[in-house]
Amino acid sequence: MRDLPRLRRLVWAAAPRLLLVSLLLTLSSSLLPVAQLYIGKLIVDQVVALVAGGTAIAALIQQLIPLVSLGFGLMVGQAILQQLDSYTTQILGDRFLLYANTQLLNQAVRLDLAHYESSEFHDILNRAQQSGSQYPLRVLRTLTSLLGQTARFVGLLALLLRFSPLVILLLLISAIPTFWVGVRFSDRRFWMTRRQTSSRRLADYFGEVLTEPQYVKEVRLFNLGDHLAKQYQDIREAFNQESQLLARRQAIAQSSIELVAAVGFYGAYALVLWQVIQGAVTIGDLTLYVGSFQQAQSAGAAMLLSIANIYEFNLYVSQYFEFLDLTPKVVSPPRPKAFPTPLREGLVMENVYFTYPGAKAPTLKNISLTVGPRECIALVGLNGSGKTTLLKLLTRLYDIDRGRIAVDDISLSAFRLSDLRRNIGVLFQDFARYALSVGDNIGFGNLPMRQQTPQIQQAAVDAGADSVIEALDQGYQTILGKMFSGGVDLSGGQWQKVGLARAFMSQAQILILDEPTAAVDAIAEHDLFQRFRQLTQGKMTFLVSHRFSTVRMADRIVVLDQGQIIEMGTHEQLMAESGRYAEMFRLQAASYTTESKSGKV
Ligand SMILES: Nc1ncnc2c1ncn2[C@@H]1O[C@H](COP(=O)(O)OP(=O)(O)OP(=O)(O)O)[C@@H](O)[C@H]1O
């Protein structure tokens, strides 16, 4: 229950006035039935007295009119209050849902890339998504109804106290099993659901593979459909069986409770009947008793069930807060320094070491590198040698373990993250393909300039994407991808040109291009690299490529091997050294020449 104050603050922040209105409505609509019961008793007593006294029908009716009207008014009032209550509850629910989900998304953006690479994190995120969307509000709704139920229960107890304290004792005793069963099974269901998180994510994943566009082709071509659907079904089936078992046990326990409640009711009924026979209470009292006892019994049971529910829902809410409590490690400093513009000295890496979270050995070891403000560096190396990792460190997607990375002698961690990233234009190998307009796909590279058409068009021209876009019916307004109505899909190379245009959109002083032309055709690549110098002029550029014709254009080439720099220099220098670079270059060149000689090209 320790999350309750926090939860109240959360809902209060989402819709403060509505929360108050909802509370008042619940309270008043809960108390009206008690008043109705009492009016009912007064009517019965008056009828019995009038009939016994031999009052004429017309006079009898006249005397009853005020009480009956009051009863009618209360009933109508109750109906209106109830509707108002459900109306405000609905609005409060909608507002809160939006607020809670926005909080969740804001937190998701704040967290580190490293978080997203841990399966525990995805379990936490998944649980927060499941819980955050409904449980915080459920706790509050249950709390408000608990308040109403308690008010009604106390009102009914006051009415019942007229008969005998024993009646109240019977009522309370018969309610205890409800509470016990409620709490016990809530707890079991919670832990069952929590235990299932990883398997549920796996089942969801199978569902995704069977329905997401990127898997459609392979699922058909490798006939994976039935196999994956079966895996999905098996997991969900196991969940169902577990849930069924729990539901069966709960139903049995619940039936026993009903038995206890019936014994309680009839025990107390016999007590009051005895009092009527003795003439100690009136017939009106008897009707009041029957109504009050039944209502009190259900209000009492509802109250205890609410408490059990609050306990259960609060367990789920704690999962939502568990996610909100995660803290990013890569953060801006409290007093950030301004990013130097223009760059004067350039970038320095000194004895940098980096280990991926959970990895046993460092991926990058003792990296030392100095790059001039307008220099173009090509990173070369076998798959897995650490090229992309090095670029991720420059953008602070991860922080280094040891060593130093500085720009104009200011450590990267001294800049505000957003400032640092604004100064670096990036195209990663696995760049994003937004199912939005072409304009957005390019404009996202520089959000404040998203609406500036000339800039977007220039970036498209620079990346060679302009001809692709001109061929689209709606030009820059065309929605890309097939996810939304009217969307048009592009080829891999065309997408890459759009991604490259996004990197060019930024006014950054540092440009990172991780295999920017891996998917584009030879002509487009040639065209791009003809203009490469001009496009990257005045910028510090990092280029990763496996194509040596591209690499040789760089001012300097850095060769990585198993996370270490093994060679560094211009193309000519490295060729003269006849080291690893020269070996890789010659191998690639030879494969081209043999193939052309044998007529394959
Ligand atoms: N997110 C990650 N978590 C843990 N290890 C990772 C992660 N990303 C990469 N690695 C490991 O780090 C090493 C270097 O990977 P990196 O992506 O930097 O290589 P690369 O030189 O860019 O390779 P490629 O030429 O295939 O793109 C690899 O051994 C890889 O398995």
TrEMBL record:
Keywords: ATP-binding, Cell membrane, Membrane, Nucleotide-binding, Transmembrane, Transmembrane helix, Transport. Its main location: membrane. PROSITE patterns: ABC_TM1F, ABC_TRANSPORTER_1, ABC_TRANSPORTER_2. The chain crosses the membrane at residues 47-76, 166-185. Residues 347-587 form the ABC transporter domain. InterPro entries: AAA+_ATPase (IPR003593), ABC1_TM_dom (IPR011527), ABC1_TM_sf (IPR036640), ABC_transporter-like_ATP-bd (IPR003439), ABC_transporter-like_CS (IPR017871), P-loop_NTPase (IPR027417), Type_1_exporter (IPR039421). Residues 20-299 form the ABC transmembrane type-1 domain. GO terms for molecular function: ABC-type oligopeptide transporter activity; ATP binding; ATP hydrolysis activity. The keyword Mitochondrion does not apply. Coiled coil: none annotated. One of its GO terms (cellular component) is plasma membrane. It is found in: Cell membrane. It is a multi-pass membrane protein. This is ABC transporter ATP-binding protein. It comes from Vasconcelosia minhoensis LEGE 07310. Signal peptide: none annotated.
